[in-house]
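fwd from M.: "can u put these together and see what the complex looks like"

so here's what she sent:
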Amino acid sequence: MMSQRADELSDEQLMSRLGGPGVETAISALYDRYSRTVFGVGLKILGDRSSAEELVQDVFLKVWRSASTFDPSRGSFSTWLYRVTRSCALDLYRKRAHKVHPVPEGESYLATARDSSAGPQEVVDESWLSWRVSRALEVLDAPHREVIELAYFRGLSQREVSERTGLPLGTVKSRTASAFKKLRGELAIQDTSREALR
Amino acid sequence: MRCAEIHPNLAAFVVGGMEPEEAAEVQRHLASCPDCRRELEELRKVNRALEAAPPPADPPSHLKDEILSQVRAEQRYPSTEEELSAAEERASSTSTRSKNLRIVLSSAAAAAIVVIFTLAVFFGFLREEPPVATIQLVPTPQEAAGLEGYWGVAEIRPQPSGNQQVELKLNNFEEPRPNSYYELWFVSGERRISAGSFTSVGEGETRVLLNAPPEARNYQTLLITEEHIDDHPTFGEEVALKGEVP
């Protein structure tokens, strides 16, 4: 039984509990932290929700089954999880390469998620930047993430973000500036772990 | 304008959502300020990174439960040869109970599914090549009327633990009746092993991930039945689909 709340534990501490009685709590906490990133990167690589859902399942089951292969001295959990995700995505990409995945109505932004001119390995390799940015966005608090998502994924101008959120234009600008500052710091931190990918 | 006034606006400038007159003012300042140009370049790196960000989307809420169920199932069943033998013993000892659970296909009504295939051949193949194999599900004659074509597939993947993962993909498979659910069984003669229960979404695709213990590979039939909540955990007798290996 865990003596600390799971959400207070580091990723590495949660991983060390996957072999014991707290396995479900640990998996659940890791899922809460990372499933959006795995799903988002899955959408980016595989191009449809069904495949991205399959990827999320494959990845978290592999995390549990392969927990013993995680060595925190060789890199962060996030980097290790990215490698697991990349491997599972490549398997799914190859498996489903012959199938056609229509883009659901109302999710047109997914249609541009994958450059069809790129090969599977190339597409998957490009996902490292997507992973890093997604993790950096997850670190932002909700108000900062909101202004970034509205600007980048809804294509809204600063004034439109102001109208959508009801925030003064000056607040939108200052939140955007603050979000950029935090993202810059996060991306720089994450870049230092890149060598662990090789 | 001074740098202190420009800096808070540089991110908005990079995002590209400023009013034209504001943007022009920032550009005039940048033309004469190398410090702000350097800052701008740093922000543009963040901007380029954000363009690579995956779209914000949450996975469906049921996924987490399915993963935890799978973990639970794999924990429950043994994986070593010794434990397998013990499990086989336990399975044999339950056969008395299962004698009362004979399935009578001819008397079945239309509400559950039957899929039959040769597991010995199938799993033999899977053991050599671990990835995925797919079985088409075909409705029984009494269910075929009113249905058109393909109903779904079952994919089976052997797991490192020895468990057999079964993924069902059912198209337009009607929801169970009130206070009922579906259950997947591996069957051999009068013996059977439950691989878990599920429901369906009706119209559209129902995708379910279930798990069977390693000894299921010796069972020749896979059944999906409709079960009533609060009834004894036995076979349902209603059959709708039947599939066999060619």
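replying to her w this: The two ends of chain A are 36 Å apart (CA to CA).
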